[in-house]
Amino acid sequence: MIIKVKAFARFGEVLGKELDLELDSRSDIDGMLSVLCASRDAYDLIFDESGRIREYVNILKRGRHIQSLDGIRTALEDGDEIAIFPPVAGG
Amino acid sequence: MITITEEDFNIDKILKDAKHPDDGAIVTFLGIVRDDGIAGMEIEAYTDLAMQELEKIEKEALERFDIRSLDVIHRTGTLSVSDNILLIVCGAPHRKDAFAACEYMIDELKKRVPVWKKELFKDGAGGKWVGEETE
Fold first, then answer.
1. Which domains, ranges and CATH numbers included, belong to chain A?
2. For a Cys-Cys bond, which of A11, B30, B46, B81 suits A7, CB 3.0-4.6 Å?
3. Is residue B129 part of a domain?
4. Please, which residues have CB within 8 angstroms of residue B58's CB and are 6 or more apart in sequence?
């Protein structure tokens, strides 16, 4: 399946602003992050020293925060749009 | 009216359009690029979600306060010092609710709306995302 990933602000500079990822059909957010964070810079941006997703990282599936879904075990479907970004700073 | 755009806006026209015979006050908030020793600012938005969130906040403000209208324009793209970033225009029968709703809108926008600002260095060598130091 193919999912679209949109990354914003500094995350966009490190991960790429918009990319299509080809994943196995039963992938979840955890699996997506493994592909997305293959480089050291990307991994360090998203994960802390103990391998947990950093507190300031927001991940949304189709506009819903994964914390309100199944966290990193949130299942992905073909055509999903995933957004990943740091804390907002508009205004 | 909620708008996210790269274009600048005409404040006089927006104020003129906001005027209504039932209103006794229009409160505006204009956010501009401050010269903190920077060349300018780059503003990025997750537009679809930002629009949804702005509309939610607008609805909340209309329910909480006795106001008649609330307009928000947030710019994106590359801006120079003193350029307009954000305009909030709130029309109400009385000033207290107009001020309160305007403040509610900007406070919630800063907390909830997916928009980011990057301060651009004067030497042209990149910039720094606002808020990065707290991450």
1. 2-85 (3.10.20.30)
2. A11
3. no
4. B2, B70, B72, B105
